[in-house]
Structure formats: structure tokens, C-alpha cells
Design brief:
Elements: E1 9-13, H1 18-31, E2 38-45, H2 51-72, E3 79-85, H3 88-98, E4 103-107, H4 113-119, H5 122-129, E5 134-137
Parallel strand pairs: 1-2, 1-4, 2-3, 4-5
Length: about 150
């Protein structure tokens, strides 16, 4: 089998919630193990968001990503940052198509079962419409952050 010249590409949807941070961390762990891989992070804002707010969000996302990549020893320049206006599912699918993504990752959201049934989930909409597999990352036990450990001396 001839290796593909296409890099392994992962798109991570980010909404500044703990689940997104968890999904981003797992995506970085994955791409650092795959040579020539690329990571794209997308945050979708409501239509009508001002250009100033989009610029501010992009800057915040860039700082966040640089810190996470530094901690994971992953070159931040291999991460595309995208802030888009519109419907999250539609914009994530568009980006995944544009960058020929091999995988979309999202963080699990905590909400009631009834609310989830009424609204539908972003993961379900993406699984239906995405051009690639969708992985919804949820920490074991449903907690994005481990409890602080105290060491006695």
C-alpha cells in the first residue's frame, strides 16, 4: 500500500466549555503520535457577532492553543484556528470538508436528558452530516478535570 500524501487532519469544535478543553487535549495527544498530522480548532459564534468580538475570540483561542501545545510538546504552528459565524453543526461540517478532515472531535456537554432530546445534540447532527467520523470525548466519570491531589510530606 502506498502511503498517502494527505496529512492526518483532525478538527476540534470548541465552545470554551470544559468538555471542549478535554476534547482538545485528547486531539493533541492523538496528533502528536501521527507524523505530519494537522489540527484545526473551530469556534462558532452567533451570526451578527461584531468583527471586534471575533478578533478578540480569535486572540483568546490562539493564546489558549499555544499554551496547550507548549505543554504537550506539539508545535502550535501546526494548529489552524478558525472563528466562524453561523450554526455550529453546519460550520464544523464545512470546515471539515474544506480541510479534508479525517476526524472531528467534540467535548461532551453536560445537560439534562430531556433537554438533549428536545434540542438534539451537536454530535448527532455532525455524525449525520460530517464527511468523516465524529468522536465525542467524555472523561471517565463525566468530569473534565481530575480532582486536585494533595500530597502530605
Amino acid at each position: 500500500m502506498v502511503p498517502s500524501s494527505h496529512p492526518f487532519t483532525v478538527v476540534v469544535g470548541d465552545d470554551f466549555e470544559p468538555g471542549s478543553a478535554y476534547a482538545f487535549d485528547r486531539a493533541v495527544e492523538l496528533v502528536v503520535r501521527v507524523p505530519r498530522s494537522l489540527l484545526h480548532v473551530v469556534h462558532v459564534v452567533r451570526e451578527g457577532t461584531t468583527a471586534t468580538d471575533v478578533h478578540r475570540l480569535t486572540a483568546m483561542l490562539r493564546v489558549y492553543i499555544e499554551e496547550k501545545c507548549l505543554a504537550a510538546h506539539h508545535p502550535a504552528q501546526l494548529v489552524g484556528i478558525h472563528v466562524r459565524g453561523g450554526q455550529p453543526a453546519q460550520e464544523i461540517v464545512l470546515l471539515a470538508t474544506e480541510v479534508a478532515a479525517d476526524l472531528i472531535m467534540l467535548g461532551a456537554r453536560t445537560r439534562t436528558r430531556v433537554l438533549g432530546l428536545l434540542q438534539g445534540s451537536l454530535g448527532a447532527r455532525l455524525a449525520r452530516d460530517a464527511p468523516c467520523p465524529v468522536l465525542v470525548a467524555e472523561p471517565i466519570g463525566g468530569h473534565a478535570f481530575a480532582p486536585e491531589r494533595h500530597v502530605s510530606t
